[in-house]
Design a protein that fits this description.
Blueprint: E1 11-18, E2 27-34, E3 39-42
Antiparallel strand pairs: 1-2, 2-3
């Protein structure tokens, strides 16, 4: 498990569709999310 660099709490995995890389194809991107900081940590 990964931990948040700021608060050291456990990070959650979030999946959401991302089309920034290619406008035509939507890519499912995995992000790490810290509940306590309420921030996405890009992987």
């Amino acid at each position: 498990m990964k931990h948040c660099p700021k608060c050291n709490s456990l990070l959650l995995y979030l999946y959401y569709r991302d089309n920034r890389r290619d406008e035509r194809s939507w890519v499912k991107t995995k992000y790490l999310y810290c509940k306590r900081c309420n921030k996405l940590i890009d992987t």
